[in-house]
Amino acid sequence: MAELPVIGVSVGYLAALFGVAYWAERRSGARRSLVGNPYIYALSLAVYCTAWTYYGSVGRASQVGIEFLAIYLGPTLLAPIWWLLLRKIIRICRQQRLTSIADFLSARYGKSASLGAVVTVLCVVGSIPYIALQIKAIAASFALLTQGSGPSVLGGVGGVALATTIVLAFFTIIFGVRSVEATERHDGMVFAVAVESLVKLVAFLAVGVFVVWGLFSGPTDIFDQAAAVPALKRLFTLQDSGVTAPHWRTLLLLSGAAIILLPRQFQLAVVENTNEDHLRKAMWLFPLYLLIINLFVLPIALGGALRLGATDADFYVLALPLHANSPGLALLTYIGGLSAASSMIIVETVALAVMLSNHLLMPLLVRIPAAHITRRPGWFAYLSQSALWGRRLAVAVVLLLAYGWYMTVGQGLALVNIGLVSFAAVAQLVPVVLGSLYWKGGTRSGAMAGLLGGFLLWFVTLVLPTFVGPGWLAPQVLADGLFGLPQLRPEALFGLTTLDPLTHGLFWSWTVNILLFVGVSLFGEPSGDEAQQAVAFVDVFKGGAGATGAAWAGAPLPDVRALLTGFLGPKRTAQALRQFSDRHPDALTSQLLPANATPADTDPRLLTWAEKLLAGSIGPAAARLLLASATGAQRVTFEGVVGALRESQQLVEANRQLRRQQRELQRLTTELQTAYHQLQGLDQLKDEFLSTVTHELRTPLTSIRALAEILYDVPDLQDPERSRFLLTITRESDRLSRLITLVLDLEKFESGKATLDVSSVDMADVVADAVAATEQLATERQIQFQLDTPATLPFVPADRDRLMQVLVNLLSNAIKASPTDGTGRISVRATAEAGQMQLTVTDNGKGIDPAYHTLIFDKFFQARNQSVRKPEGSGLGLAITKKIVELHLGTISVESAATCGAVFRVTLPLVSDKLYSRP
Amino acid sequence: MPVLTERAAQRRGQQLMFVALTFAALLTFPMLGVWDQPARLGGVPVLWLAIFGSWLLLICLTAWLVRHPAAPKSEAPTESNSINPDPTRG
Predict the structure, then answer these.
(1) Could you tell me the CA-to-CA distances from A417 to A67, A399, A400, A410, A743 in Å, in that order?
(2) B79 and A CB contact within 8 Å
(3) A35 close to A190: Cβ distance less than 8 angstroms
(4) Which end of chain A is more exposed for a tag (fewer CB within 10 A), N or C?
(5) What would the pLDDT profile of A469-515 be if each residue is shown by its tens digit?
């Protein structure tokens, strides 16, 4: 086929695509978007199927059979969990306005500019061979199609490759980097890619049908014929094709990682996604697309081998129609291949250009301080233009690098091998990306160390060996190892020879990558920004993420407005500010009107809003730097806020402790004062007690001594007189000893040393005994007892002797108070009710002034107040009585008026376990 | 179209995960070794049939599991949706 028509068709096809894209963009501008539906979304994801799939799969299948399917099974196996994984990434990117995988990782680890730069370099370096592969495919297919049509206008395959590069650079720029505003969505490009996906599918199916039913009579025929050739029959199984289980697994892992992390896949699946719900259909439509496009790969490979023999198997797809003299089908096939390659190149290059501009160029540019405040708007517009031109330049640079790589290294390599090296490069992002989605402990240093380590190992194990071909590396390095060290053989590090090169490379790079990422993260501490972003990423579905609160402060509104206008243009700026004020009606609404813009500080939420808007254009790290440098806004760091909070909290805590100690001190002082007063009172009581006791002791002693002196001085005292004196001495001695006994008893009770010998006591019995003991005294004074102690009274738990003492005390007290003229009556009454024994001793004597009703139970009360009642007695009787009753857990009280007798009432509990358990 | 409640959506996530893991086991060694033999069925190698069969089954299962949209609650409006590109762009 002649060259010129093919060139015409190629350029015409691309131009038609551009027309389609332009139309789609117009439609989406008019709010009738063609892109906002799941079918376009799923088809655009099929950019995954590049020239590698289109041409390379057949080549691969003719060498190692069904192994090529692993590259499509990996994404298929991952597709069901897109709903969990990809949706999370989409949600995060939307909330934070992230537009590339480098944005994503840079934002996750504290909006780090350096991490973004590393990811960008990794992606660019990893993708360049892959783009070169597409250039190679276009150039080689063009050469094949125009074979034998005379001398080449373009100067052979190299010339075709260069022309392809230039044409595609032009189309990429007008497809993806055309807009004056560097925005993130490219509806036209997405639609064009979807159309190309359809074209390549139709073209490939056409070839498949043509081969299976045109050249052969159905699949059975092809397989039968192939089964007859041993070299082809071995392709029917994996083990005969030499595919090992680790290799198969490696391919699944690599392709599973690639479907999300390849820059172009990330661009289309995440950035260009218009609605998360589109994922639902894409989750099964995309695997279905993969299944359909792979149906005919093996039959074509077998058919090619049967019909064409040892031709370059990578181009059986094109060679078979040519061989069968079907130029129309061959041209369609060529267009299909062009679709596959060009869609990949356009999307990949746009994605890389955005990354290069946002992570290498803009962070440098925004560091240049604006010269003067009046020149700022111009500077911002200049920055915006720089971003755009930076991207255009990046497109050209990336494509030229790819061309260079193809010319020097790539010509000798099979398509698939080139692609797998690229897959392994982006696979280095897997640990860090998964960590950023599900692990809050990852740090910037950890991510950086993991990526650099993995990248280095990837380079050594997978890229270095490809340098042998162009002669950049002496072949003996592969055999003897780097620097002559046999441990550093690139394809057998540390003597690990059991794995195939790809698995070997992935194993070492992932091991180092994961260990460094996790290890360095665990031994470091995430900064405040990182911790905040970790929550925003990991908990993105729990809501509340993205609202970062007062993260910015101190920028005047006009500056922010100027900054936004420079980047977004006045129209979009006004629109964005209006949307902001709709969302936050409370945030300085009046300030948003240009007329009365005041130099007051802008609402912090507006600054955060502006940062996100800018991030969409120039990347998160650059947006942060720009906002800080251009408007003078201060970032209120998380650490700063936490530090201030912590300090004030410490102050509050110290204050609280001081107050607590003060209160404690006050309480202690009060207690001390109370104790001091009690002590003083007790001391006084003791003094009184001592003086009373000595006084009481002295009275009988004095009389004893006087009588004894008389007896001594008057030897001839008459007998009756002597007897009387001696009797008195005896009685006084008795009184003295009784008094001492009482004092000792009292001391015993007061010190708590007294014990009770508790038994069940018959109250009537005790009363009778007590009456008998005091009967003599009563009879002397002509006093009569009245007893009312029924025999049915229950027994009381008590110490019988002590209870006796109580009764005797009360009776003798009553006797002493009663009149001696024969009218004296004392009644003793005992009743039991409500679990209590009540004992009353009633007399009709002098009575007790109510003012003294409690005082009479004090020690020596009567001794001090001789006038009241009871001129006789020690004054200890009632005090001891009270102590005994209280020891029995009972109570004693008195009711009386001054002249009409007194009633002493004793209440004792009938049941008391406590009593028994007392010592 | 019926939508899923929050809880059913969570359950669906687990079902999808289960499907992915099951087919990952089916389509890797040693399980894949069951089909990895030179026999043919209707002329077509059994390994080829097994892989494409599982593949189709996986697609059908996934499509069946995600037939309902999630509850609108989890489809929270996002900021990007609210800033539409300038209509005059392009």
Answers:
(1) 13, 20, 21, 10, 115
(2) yes
(3) yes
(4) C
(5) 777 777 777 777 777 777 788 777 887 778 888 899 999 999 999 99
Chain B nearest-CA residue for A571: B86
* DSSP 8-state assignment for residue A186: -
Q: What is the dihedral of CA A134, A137, A142, A143, to 10 degrees?
A: 130
A291 → closest Cβ in B48, B56, B83:
B56
Q: How confident is the model at residue A918 (pLDDT cuts 50, 70, 90)?
A: very low
Evaluate the CA torsion angle A662, A665, A669, A670 in order and state its sign.
positive
Separation CA A688–CA A878 (nearest Å): 17
Shortest Cα–Cα distance, A576 to chain B (Å): 7
Beta carbons of A517 and A436 less than 8 angstroms apart: no
Please give the structure tokens belonging to residue A513. 């990558």
Contact B86 A181 (CB under 8 A): yes
pLDDT tens series, chain B, 90 aa: 566 777 888 888 899 999 999 999 999 888 888 888 888 888 888 999 999 999 999 999 999 998 888 755 444 333 333 333 333 332
- Cβ contact, residue pair A288, B59, below 8 Å: yes
Helix, strand or coil, per DSSP, at residue A849:
coil
pLDDT digits (tens, 9 = 90+) for A420-453: 888 899 999 999 999 999 998 889 999 999 999 9
Per-residue tokens: A266: 């990330």
Q: Do B85 and A287 make contact, defined as CB atoms within 8 angstroms?
A: no
Structure-model confidence comparison of residues A605 and A667, the more confident one:
A667
What tokens does A540 get? 């993105």
Cβ atoms A128, A408 nearer than 8 A: no
Q: Which amino acid does the sequence have at A162?
A: L
pTM: 0.67
d(CA A311, CA A204): 19
Which pLDDT tens digit goes with each residue over A480-490?
777 777 778 87
Measure the CA–CA gap between A12 and A14, rounded to whole angstroms: 5
Q: Which residues of B touch A291 (CB under 8 A)?
A: 52, 55-56, 59
pLDDT for A738 beyond 90: no
Q: What is the DSSP string of A762-802?
A: -HHHHHHHHHHHHHHHHHHTT-EEEEE--TTPPPEEEEHHH
Would an 8 Å CB–CB cutoff place B26 in contact with chain A? no
CA R_g for chain B: 21
C-alpha A92/C-alpha A287 separation (Å) is: 24
Beta-carbon separation of A76 and B59 below 8 A = yes
Facing residue for B86 by CB, picked from A221, A249, A571 = A571
Q: What span, in angstroms and rounded, lies between the C-alpha atoms of B73 and B69?
A: 11
Place of tokens 């690599």: A254
Q: Using one digit for the tens of pLDDT, what is the confidence trace for A123-179?
A: 998 898 889 888 888 888 888 888 876 666 677 777 888 888 898 898 888 877 766
A848-875 pLDDT, tens digit per residue, is 777 777 777 776 665 455 544 444 556 6
Cβ contacts (< 8 Å) between B87 and chain A: which residues?
29-31
pLDDT at A397: 92
**CB A809 within 8 Å of CB A877:** yes
Helix (H, G, I), strand (E, B), or coil: what is residue A439? coil
Q: What is the DSSP letter of A157?
A: H
DSSP string covering A662-721: HHHHHHHHHHHHHHHHHHHHHHHHHHHHHHHHHHHHHHHHHHHHHHHHHHHH-TT--HHH
**ipTM > 0.95, yes or no:** no
Other CB atoms within 10 A of residue B28 CB? 17
d(CA A257, CA A245): 18
More confident residue, B3 or A228: A228
Identify all chain B residues contacting A583, using CB atoms and an 8 Å cutoff: 82
